[in-house]
Amino acid sequence: KLEIMIMSARNLPKMDAFGTCDGFCTIVFQGSTKETSVRPRSYFPEWNESFSYLVDNTLDPGKLLIS
């Protein structure tokens, strides 16, 4: 089992014509996509949201890329 905790983001860029952004985080793991809730008009969103994945035995335990 893999537990991922999304805590926060900092200094998000302005993304719309009004100079604001609606922050969210997308997680893709083994073909499954999950998203945090949206934090409207925040350059420093905080989520503190946890996500769980069942890990299959073919996963290389030494390789995990987070970006």
UniProtKB/TrEMBL annotation:
InterPro entries: C2_dom, C2_domain_sf. It comes from the Eukaryota. Pfam families: C2 (PF00168). Gene3D superfamilies: C2 domain. Coiled coil: none annotated. Residues 1-67 form the C2 domain. CDD domains: C2. This is C2 domain-containing protein. It comes from Guillardia theta (strain CCMP2712) (Cryptophyte).
